[in-house]
Amino acid sequence: MQKRPSKESIIAEYLSGETSYRKMGEKHGINFYSIRRWVLQHQGRMKQPPRAKTVKPAPDFLPDESLPTDVKTLQAELRKARLEKQVLEEVINVAEEELGIPIRKKHGAKQS
User: Fold this and answer.
1) How many whole angstroms separate alpha carbon 10 and alpha carbon 34?
2) For residues 55 and 31, is the Cβ–Cβ distance under 8 A?
3) Distance CA 4, CA 19 (A)
4) At what angle do helices 7-15 and 21-28 cross, to 10 degrees?
5) Per-residue pLDDT tens for 13-38?
6) Distance CA 44, CA 76 (A)
7) How far is Cα 10 from Cα 28, in angstroms, rounded to an integer?
8) Angle 32-43/7-15 helices, nearest 10 degrees?
9) CB contact set of 5 (below 8 Å; sequence gap of 6+)
10) Distant-in-sequence, close-in-space partners of 13: CB < 8 Å, separation ≥ 6
């Protein structure tokens, strides 16, 4: 079992200018982008190492006592909005029949 060379030795080998990141990665079995990042950090051109994204835990949801009334209010508003949509669609249908022209937008058509 071979021991992996240290970061410092890999950086020194790259800085000798004899090979590329990709060839170094293949030679040592390390992702070439990691080697690139190490070299940039060593040269001071990368100010901070990239951080892994942290996922914030979801806040604990404690429902209020008013939640059922909020849900009922929202359901009533949704019902009203759906009825308004149906009315408007029917108005468009009637207008299209009476005028004999299409009013609805055709998806994908060029706009002038």
Assistant:
1) 11
2) no
3) 18
4) 140
5) 888 888 888 998 898 889 988 889 88
6) 61
7) 9
8) 80
9) 13, 28
10) 5, 19, 24
Tokens of 96: 């299209």
pTM reported for the whole predicted model: 0.40
DSSP code of residue 65: T
Phi, psi angle pair for 39, to nearest 5°: -65, -45
33 close to 41: Cβ distance less than 8 angstroms:
no
Residue owning tokens 């090979």: 19
Q: What are 89-109's pLDDT values in tens digits?
A: 999 999 999 999 888 877 776
- Assigned token pair, 43: 């040269």
DSSP helix/strand/coil, 62 = coil
Contacts of 22 (CB under 8 A, 6+ apart): 32
Quickly count: other Cβ atoms within 10 Å of residue 11's Cβ.
18
